[in-house]
Structures are given as C-alpha cells and as structure tokens.
C-alpha cells in the first residue's frame, strides 16, 4: 500500500470546511505522582446528574459548542442527503412494517408484540392460548406520541393476567418510570414510580411487586416492594446495596414461588431469596460474594440449578441444591466443568434441563432428561451462525423456543419438543424487498494475532464480489465484558454488501467467543490484545484478498468505540475511515471519577486507577484520549447522545477536539450528537435506521462510493 495515495483517497471526497474551535481550559490532575493536563475538561457538565433528568439545564456554553459540532458535520455530509435517503428506504424496505412475534403461551393466554404500518414502537398483545383475536394491551406509538425520545422498559403481566407493569424513559437517560395497567379496562392506575431500572416482579398474590430504584448517580442501589394503591413514598425497602461497585436486579421464577435479588459486578455475584408469597420476609443469602466467583440460580422444583465457575470451573459447571437450604455447602455437581465448553445459560423444566453452550466459537443447545440423565444437542450445519434460547413462560412444559440465523439466513423461530426432538418452524423473518440467500457467501476465517492466537472473523459478501483486494470492507468489533457478537442475519448491512462491500465481524479477545479464557485475555492488563486482534483481523482480510487497507472502514460502539479510538492511535494507516459510536474513549478520566454511574462496577473490567498505580499506568497506556499523538489520522466519525449515562457525551466531545489539534493530515474529524437521546441513539425503529444510514453514508464516502 502507498500511504500517500491512501491518505489522498480517503479525504478527497470531503469538501473542506472550517472545523469548530474548542476552547482550551487546562486542568491538571496528579495521581500516584503522575501529572496530566486535560485541556477540555470543561466540556463535562458540572450538573450532569440534573441534566440527565432535564436536558434543558445543560450549560449554554457547552450546548453552543455541541450545536456547532452538529452544524459542522451537517456541512461535510450535506452532499450525502440523497444517498442517506436511498439507504434508509432500502433498509426500511427490508423490514416487514407490520411484523409480529410468535405469541408465547402462558396459562389461558399467549403473549406477543407487533408493529403497525409506519409505527415506530411496538404494541404488546395477547390472544387466547390456542390462537384467536388479538387484544392490544399497550400501544407504544400511542404512549410515545409527541416525545422527541421514547423507550419502553420491561413489560410484565401479573400471574392472574389482570394487570401489567410497564416502564418508559422519555429522555434517553435510562431513568424509567413504572406504571400499572388494569387489563380489563385498559386504564393505568394512579400508581406512578419514578427513577427505576425499568421493570418489576409481581408477588404471587398479584397485589404488589418488587422493583429496583436508581440513586442520583444512576446506580441500582435499592430494591423496594410496592403495594398496589399505596403512594410510592410508602414503599418498603427490601434490600440496599452499599457497595457502589455492584449492579443489582430483582427477578422471579416461572413457578412464581421465589423472588431473586441478584448482586454482581463483571466477575463476582451473589443472590438473596425470599418467598414470592411473603413480600415482607427478609431476603436470605445463598452464598456470600467471593471475588472472582460467579453463580446464577435457576428453578427446578424441589431444587435450584446453579450455573457457576466455583472450584476453578473457568468455563462453568452446573450444580444442584435443595430449595429448603441452597447454601454452598449443599451444592452437588450435576454437569461437570469441561475446558473449552463455555456454558452460557441454564433453563430448568419439570422433566428437562436445557443449557446454551459455546464450543469452538459456535453456540449449541443441549437438552438433558432429568430422570435418566440422557443428553442430546440441537444440531446445525452452517459454518457460522447465531442461536438464541427463548425458553418458555411455563415450567411444566416439554416445549422450548429458540431462534436461529446466520449472516445469509434470515432469522427463524422454532418450537422444539424436548422429548420427541421434533423441531417446528414457526416463523421465518420476512424481507419484503426480497432476499436470495444464494446470492451471498458467509465464511469463518482465522486471523493470526501477533502472539500466535487465531482470531475468528465472520465474513459476508456477494457471490459476484471480486476477492482481489479491490472490495471495500466494513470491519466491526467490540471485545469487552465477555460479550460475544453473533454471526447473525443483519438486513441493514446488505445495503453495503450489495454495493460491493465485504462485511466482517472480528471476534476479538475481550469477548467469550472462544471460552472464558478468551475474555480474560482481553481485560485489565491484557486489554491491548483486544486492539491487536482487531488490527490483525484487518490485515488478514487484506492478505487474503478480501480488501485493501485504503478500503477498510472500522466500526464499533460503546466499549467497541474505545476499540476504535485505540486502533486509530495504533494503526491509523490501516483504515480508510473509522466510525466510533458512543465511544468510551476517555477511559482514564472516567475510571478516576467514582461519582459516574458505571465507574465503580467497571473497575473489575478495567482496573481501579484510584487505588492502584499499576492499573493507572495500564489504562493510561491505551486510553484513546490520553494517547492521541501527532500523526495522520484517517477520517473519523464520532456519534454520541446527550443524555447517555453509560458513555457520557463529553468523552467523544473531548476526543474529537484533541484529535483535531494533533492530526498531521487534513482528514476530517466529525462529531454528531443526538441532543434528544442517550446511549442507544434514536428510539424509534425508523429513526434508528436514519442513524445507521448516516454511518453507512460516511463509510461509502471515505472509500469513494458515495
């Protein structure tokens, strides 16, 4: 590759425009005897807690700067308006606008969700158990009418099917309001509970429910019980977590006999139980938290099934314990640990135990008959695919539901008889504008990393795409928190693939694609493996003739946005452009700020630079904002949401400002911020497509196909 030609190729498609000038107000910070100066710290709103709840309180100077950034990206991307509209219409044309889920049975009814033609938000409905007319329980379009942002939270019907808990967020800050709907009248009761996690769990008598309340720092620190009809101020505090480093949630069981309070960070977990028919009972601890030990509880009638990594079971094993006394000393091993087989989740039924596992980077479902111990796996044949286990609302059933797709195969929903092994196809994802799987090829490559590890790369392209290095490529990556990016069907990316792109997913370390060790090898002191894996994936695609470095556009969001910032610093000449969505790029400053919502719970993932000089130096060595240097960066698009509590808007705002003062070339650095949304971007399904179209237009532009 000729670096000079590459630089010309990737920037010549943007009309020069003066970029916004960001004021410098240096702030010095010294930790562990190490001093840093942050010239753009002023972009962090001093009243961020208040602003998340009321965006109108944002400092006018900050608002003016963000609006100037939006005007700049509008000017540079102005000539893509027609392309973006075309992309939007294509992607919209692949969506069945009046789509509906396959209702799932529960007692006398079956529950599902659907969209109306032109609708942005889902409607929730039910039918008689064996089919019949739909009754709309909640209409998202009606509830969100007139809101600049609207997102539904959890929807949970009561055990007697007479009431519904539902939650919504109308600012993007993920502070959800809970309401209770009477399903006979369709009218919401007077009960309104604010600042919640977005869902509730009914007691067995359907007279009240448990929920998580968020504190001012957006942390789920308390579990409350609410009696229907009483004021929220009178709700009983059930449990309070005093350690800000732990997330907390409350759930139930399909037998509706237990309430489970889970407390966890990224490597340690703990459960408390109370009977669902005794909401005033004190929660009983199952196993006290032990750093590095994780466990999950699943009902099993007279036993609990326990999925855990205790006893050195790195890829997890399954235990049982009597419901009468489920403490650790009573745990008995049922499914032993098997290195390389990562057990992801477990579902218990009266006669069967089902789990989802991953071997060699691919998922599979295993069914075990409880009385005989006989096991079988639900098999699939494609080279790369995605598998989801939906389970069932009901415990006393021999039918489970799962979904299947691949990069070429639209999503399919099956019911599976665990005893007869009969698989019934209930639904295949419709692509109204048409889709012929035979026109496309999906492959699984193995890219050699610098240390010899082989990084899986899932690839999709049209059969008629020339693999001579001339095709452009969108390379997507994430690589954190153990999250695995599935090789699933994605109708949106077909707009690129049909224009000659190769679409690729790099299954890099930091995820659990190749087991738990794959995750461990991409966190804390091993974090740089995530970045070098991604770079290796791109170089392998070039070496194998799929693309060229001056044609690769890298994309990642959130922690994947941190990946984008890191590879921009480490290998800028490898990419024609970089799309960083809600990018976690100011890692060191964020991990040093214990008041931010996710900072204490994130320390197990990244390290605690407040307490540890070693962690400080490790994070400082790769934090994208801290490692911007004088070099020729490719065109970069950063996207953010003003009320995002997960990756605050000021992280990309500061990063973009610093990039512009350091880049030695003239490639544009764009910052697009949604002033009415948070971490997930626009809330409506079609509004979200407009954001996808914008990113794709940027990708097409930097490779000369706009």
Automatic annotation (TrEMBL):
The keyword Protease applies. Keywords: Hydrolase, Protease, Serine protease. It comes from the Bacteria. Residues 24-428 form the Peptidase S9A N-terminal domain. One of its GO terms (biological process) is proteolysis. Residues 1-25 are annotated as: Disordered. Belongs to the peptidase S9A family. This is Oligopeptidase B. It comes from Aquamicrobium aerolatum DSM 21857.
